[in-house]
Specification:
- By secondary structure, the protein is mostly helical.
- The protein has 5 helices and no strands.
- The longest helix has 22 residues.
- Helix content is 70%, strand content 0%.
- It folds into 2 domains: 58 residues, no CATH class; 32 residues, no CATH class.
Amino acid sequence: MATFLALLGVFLIGLSKAGFATGLGMLSTPLMAEAVPARTAIGVILPLLCLADIFTLAVYWRRWDLRLVACLSWARSSHRFRDRVRHLDQRAGAPPLDRGSASS
């Protein structure tokens, strides 16, 4: 039974990384944890996720628009982006983040 649960968890990782059954991907860790100890399950799942990303990168290599990537990096570093996120956090009632000072 433990082998079946582990294989089902691995199968769900593959399905979720491929874009099918994305909600079921979050069940892979608990299924693996039922088959093996939790630390071992996480230690097995992380390399599987990284391996799936490498296969995805190989399939889509050089098929992205670099202009979009440049826009994302600009937006992430721009002050306007940070100000907008801060504004949305305040509207949501989140406490302000003070990233400039270190707490002792």
